[in-house]
Automatic annotation (TrEMBL):
Residues 47-205 form the Tyrosine-protein phosphatase domain. GO terms for molecular function: protein tyrosine phosphatase activity. Belongs to the protein-tyrosine phosphatase family. This is Putative tyrosine-protein phosphatase OCA1. PANTHER family: TYROSINE-PROTEIN PHOSPHATASE (PTHR31126), TYROSINE-PROTEIN PHOSPHATASE OCA1-RELATED (PTHR31126:SF8). It is found in: Cytoplasm. It catalyses: O-phospho-L-tyrosyl-[protein] + H2O = L-tyrosyl-[protein] + phosphate. Putative tyrosine-protein phosphatase required for protection against superoxide stress. It comes from Lachancea mirantina. Pfam families: Y_phosphatase2. One of its GO terms (cellular component) is cytoplasm. Keywords: Cytoplasm, Hydrolase, Protein phosphatase, Stress response.
Length: 213
């Protein structure tokens, strides 16, 4: 029985008349025809999610995510780790003039090997002081996987916004995967002194001012 050569498949991929059918068509919800696949994939980073207007969270972006990040017009990326991010992310930020803030590099008191992967009260406040200023936006908060360290900072932000602890914990656990959240992270969020973060009303983003009313 004759089989197709690899070149035959290549010819099919190059055919502009191919019809790509999306999931809705397969499920019988309509006929959506696309004459050709998009030339560039727009892929968000791992655990990407909007937090508030022009504020986002995710795991460490990789080159496949850069086209997506460009659409966000980011001005600032907060990197929550004691180790440097990948060189490709450093180069991306440098090329597009994005400020990369190392929120936990060399915290006061030296290297910290605590249960929260290097997050100290100082580094959390450092990140939050950047988040509460509108002139740093659009802004992305990220760490290796976008789970515990990012979840800690966002959880403390929610405390500032007046969220109850049940809602804060639910949001944190939503990103922690099958292993679930860390009780030490939730205890840190609960114990965080929100008064340590200085908020200037003339410089804060509007969504934060609305939450504080």
């Amino acid at each position: 029985m004759a089989t197709k050569r690899e070149s035959d498949y290549d010819d099919e991929d190059d055919n502009d008349d191919n019809v790509y059918i999306n999931e809705e068509t397969e499920l019988g919800h309509g006929n959506v025809l696309v004459q050709r696949a998009p030339e560039e994939r727009i892929v968000p980073p791992l655990n990407f999610c909007p937090v508030e207007r022009h504020l986002y969270r995710s795991g460490q972006p990789s080159p496949v995510n850069f086209a997506f990040l460009l659409d966000l017009n980011l001005k600032t990326i907060i990197w929550l780790a004691n180790e440097e991010p990948q060189d490709t992310l450093l180069e991306f930020c440098d090329k597009h003039e994005i400020q990369l803030q190392f929120a936990t590099i060399n915290p006061d008191g030296g290297e910290d090997d605590n249960p929260w992967d290097g997050l100290t009260e100082h580094s959390i406040i450092n990140a939050l002081q950047t988040i509460v200023r509108a002139d740093n936006y659009p802004l992305l908060v990220c760490c290796g996987m976008g789970r515990h360290r990012t979840g800690t900072v966002i959880g403390c932000l929610r405390r500032i916004m007046g969220w109850n602890l049940a809602s804060v914990s639910e949001e944190y656990r939503r990103f922690t995967g099958s292993r679930g959240g860390r009780i030490l992270v939730e205890l840190l969020i609960e114990a965080f002194d929100t008064h340590l973060v200085e908020i200037e009303s003339d410089k804060a983003p509007q969504w934060l001012l609305t939450a504080l009313q």
